[in-house]
Amino acid sequence: METIIPIRGKVTYPITLDPGVWIFDDRKADLDTYFQNPEEADDELERYTKSISAHWDREIMEGAVFPPTLKSEKKYEKQKILEGTFGIPLKPFLNNAGITADASHLVIEHAEGETELPLEEAYNIILGFSKDGKPLTEDGPVHVYYGDGSNKDNPVKHVRQFRIK
Predict the structure, then answer these.
(1) Of 149, 142, 105, 125, the residue nearest 157 (C-alpha)
(2) How many CA atoms, within 13 angstroms, populate the side-chain half-sphere of residue 158?
(3) Among 21, 64, 84, 100, which residue carries the largest CB count within 10 Å?
(4) CA-CA distance, 66 to 163, in Å (whole number)?
(5) What is the Cα–Cα distance from 12 to 41, expressed in whole angstroms?
(6) Whole-angstrom Cα distance, residue 94 to residue 71?
(7) pTM
(8) Considering only CA atoms, which of 158, 164, 162, 165 is closest in space to residue 2?
(9) Averaged over 50-60, what is the pLDDT?
(10) How many CB atoms sit inside 10 A of residue 132's CB?
(11) Cβ atoms of residues 107 and 116 within 8 Å
(12) How far apart are alpha carbons 96 and 101 in whole angstroms?
């Protein structure tokens, strides 16, 4: 099974996606809770602002001294990564590829054939890359979930590439 997924077609920059490194990406989302509250899916700037604000508030309230709770928080985050089910939005990768103005659809090529979506829907896709702390080696490297969660119990699996047309 190939673990690298290309984005090709009507793009300025054909790029490749490596799901193996996404566990360290701050854009990852917990798929166990993501589709329960889809209206709470914030944009990247808002998430970043909230993260920086929380850090700033902590510095103001606790000072720069590392309190004993910091170690336990790091341990909890590590445990969450080792046991969590995660996904990442496709939108930033599509933006980085530079989709041309004449493109209208995303084609997901997978083992069972092809799935075609309008670009408007493609920007809301979540790529699942980890289940219970393990990479998706059996039916991966990613699972494709639609942004509305309509296929959360039956995602597109065995993805080989994304093609913009």
Answers:
(1) 142
(2) 6
(3) 84
(4) 47
(5) 28
(6) 37
(7) 0.78
(8) 158
(9) 79
(10) 9
(11) yes
(12) 14
DSSP classification of residue 15: E
Residue with tokens 């709770």: 69
- Give the residue carrying structure tokens 């119990």: 153
> Domains, the chain, ranges and CATH?
5-41+84-164 (3.90.420.10)
SS3 assignment, position 125 = coil
pLDDT, residue 146, reads 95
DSSP string, 40-90: G---HHHHHHHHHHHHHHHHHHHTTS--HHHHHHHHHHHHHHHH--EEEES
| CA angle (89, 93, 97) in 5-degree steps | 155
Phi-psi region of 58 (alpha: psi -120 to 50; beta: other; left: phi over 0): alpha
